[in-house]
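Worked Example 4.2. Consider the chain below.
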Amino acid sequence: MTITGCLILPHGAITLRAPQNLDMLESCQRLHSACHTACKSVLSEGVPDIVVLITPHGISNSRDFGVYLNDVAEGDAEWDNDWKEYKAKCNISVEISNELLKLLTSNFMKADGITAFAEICAMPLRWGEVIPLWFLHQNLPNHENVKHVILSVPRRRIEVGAEMIPELEELGSKLEEFFQPREEKVLIVISGDLAHKHSHSIPHHPAPYGVHDQSEHFDALCEKWAKDSQDRDSLFDAAKMLNDVRSCGFTGFVILGEILNRLRKRRKQWYQRRVREPI
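Applying the procedure from the previous section yields the following structure tokens:
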């Protein structure tokens, strides 16, 4: 079939429920409901055969993008000794993952396969993968039968995320090239959060990453891009603040932006061919 949907999901544990020691119930419930709504909306377009998950917090190489190659992955959303009851398990298509890896490396992209425990045990997952998968699987019937492909973003994103934009766009282009012509229905899922340096009003709990006054502006630019993914200038403007505000989702947003850009071009070419065809 085709790429039938794209989805951005946060991976903060507060999207699952409020922390046990903080009064944040109402805010967390809104986040929780929004994640379910997003999943229901994209799945209304059709149940995927393949889910492609891109994570900034998985098992990462220092330099290369990683492609998981164990046939099963599972874990829980534990963070700060809480949220352990939220779990996810998925079947990885090693065949499709290897095909994708071959395409990436044959085009001289910085990519490598990742395996764990001699490939006889499950690849470990944590919050960056478990939380998006938990929401998705809660709304996806028979998710045990869905094939998964998991890619991790290299650790260097922390220091040079904005400088990675050309190769992030190249990765998005290759993902679209690989998955769009396939017969299966494909769903792209980006795991990522916005700026990490917002101020807040929770007593006795300082902002864990510090505070930066450009955090709200960064988020507003990303939101503007999300409403109109052709607005690449907003995403590039946000990139200028990336080192100051820290956003683990930015690299995934750039990858997704190029996937959507390629899909638009493909649709335009299809329409132009139809217009030229004689009736």
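The first strand starts at residue 3 and ends at 9. The mean pLDDT is 90. Compare this with Example 4.1 before moving on.
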